[in-house]
């Protein structure tokens, strides 16, 4: 099978038939499956998915019927559905979709009709002919509100480029294409779907490309994401950066920080005591060590240094007892 198209969704019942018909019109030269992951919808989205899956299952794959808006699912391409009992988030939906995918190339896209399936053939070509591991879309001309989405998105993507070193204009674009082994070797959790290119890079899949894609206004419903996603995104980015740099060697971070903090506090303490003794020996006016605020700051620095060092030691013990401490991505062997 050429493609697995994974579509996470939450309350998008109105969009699904139109999206399915659009995919079928755009991918006539491919064999593919569509995997809808219903993230706890309450608007009847699952009933729509069940209907499309049943219709596709009764068609003959060798002679697909013509596609029309009134009969969107009769194409012979398998439609699968995964339904969560409650809303877990996009990362969880993608994780289950990746696990179920059987195609040589995996494509993800949103269900709100803002991503165009017509972009998929070119993204597939870039993977097959140009050797990319992952191709991410770039919504070069967004159709969203400039204040609430465009400007925050530009700041977010600028920060992500600086931290990850991946030169993508739109890290969180919904439409992406991957080699199958990419999605089988990364773990998407929490809200890390925003950083799948970074997860892929950390897993050893470094050839990441970008394609400008056409972005459209939402046709049905409302956006499921608010401004808080930018705050959460920044925190997730910091977590990923730390784990990629120090996840397997926490002592390098905490131990180094602890030693530096301890040395700063120790030097400050010695300097205060020596200065007091010198002034006392010369008969000059001096202050008791315990009367100086700097002494207490030095004491705090010493204590923090010891605590950071111990945190690194405990982190190292946990890392060494992990069952995945020697799990590596092997590209090939002979």
Structure described in brief:
This protein has 334 residues and is of the alpha/beta class. Helices cover 46% and strands 12% of the residues. It folds into two domains: 3-246, Spore Coat Polysaccharide Biosynthesis Protein SpsA, Chain A (Alpha-Beta Complex), CATH 3.90.550.10; 250-320.
Q: Report helical residue fraction.
A: 40-55%
Rg, nearest Å:
27 Å
CATH 2nd-level architecture of the largest domain: Alpha-Beta Complex
Order of helices and strands: EHEHEHEHEHEHHEHHH
Q: What would the CATH topology of the largest domain be?
A: Spore Coat Polysaccharide Biosynthesis Protein SpsA, Chain A
The major beta sheet can be summarized as:
7 strands, mixed
Count every helix, treating DSSP H or I runs of 4 or more residues as helices: 10
- Give the DSSP E fraction (strand runs of 2 or more residues): 5-15%
- Average predicted local confidence, pLDDT: 85
Task: Name the quaternary structure.
Answer: single chain
CATH superfamily of the largest domain: Spore Coat Polysaccharide Biosynthesis Protein SpsA, Chain A
Number of domains: 2
Low-confidence stretches: 58-75
Shape: elongated
Alpha-carbon distance between the two ends? 27 Å
Beta-strand segment tally: 7
């Amino acid at each position: 099978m050429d493609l697995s198209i994974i579509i996470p969704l939450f309350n998008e019942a109105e969009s699904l038939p139109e999206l399915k018909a659009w995919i079928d019109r755009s991918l006539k030269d491919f064999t593919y499956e569509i995997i809808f992951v219903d993230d706890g919808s309450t608007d009847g989205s699952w009933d729509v998915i069940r209907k499309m899956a049943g219709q596709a299952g009764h068609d003959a794959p060798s002679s697909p019927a013509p596609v029309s808006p009134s009969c969107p699912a009769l194409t012979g391409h398998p439609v699968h559905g995964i339904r969560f009992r409650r809303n877990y988030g996009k990362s969880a939906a993608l994780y289950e979709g990746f696990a179920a995918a059987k195609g040589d190339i995996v494509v993800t896209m949103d269900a709100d009709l803002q991503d165009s399936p017509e972009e998929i053939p070119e993204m597939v070509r870039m993977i097959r002919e140009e050797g990319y591991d992952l191709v991410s879309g770039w919504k070069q001309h967004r159709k969203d509100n400039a204040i609430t989405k465009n400007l925050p998105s530009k700041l977010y993507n600028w920060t992500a480029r600086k931290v990850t070193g991946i030169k993508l204009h739109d890290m969180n674009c919904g439409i992406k294409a991957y080699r199958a082994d990419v999605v089988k070797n990364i773990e998407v959790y929490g809200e890390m779907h925003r950083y799948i290119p970074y997860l892929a890079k950390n897993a050893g899949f470094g050839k990441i490309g970008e394609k400008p894609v056409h972005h459209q206004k939402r046709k049905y419903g409302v956006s499921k994401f608010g401004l808080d996603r930018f705050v959460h995104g920044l925190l997730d980015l910091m977590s990923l950066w730390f784990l990629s740099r120090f996840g397997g060697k926490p002592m390098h971070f905490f131990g180094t920080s602890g030693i530096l903090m301890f040395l700063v506090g120790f030097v400050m303490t010695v300097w205060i005591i020596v200065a007091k003794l010198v002034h006392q020996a010369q008969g000059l006016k001096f202050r008791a060590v315990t009367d100086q605020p700097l002494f207490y700051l030095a004491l705090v620095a010493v204590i923090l240094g010891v605590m950071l060092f111990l945190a690194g030691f405990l982190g190292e013990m946990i890392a060494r007892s992990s069952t995945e401490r020697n799990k590596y991505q092997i590209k090939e062997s002979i």
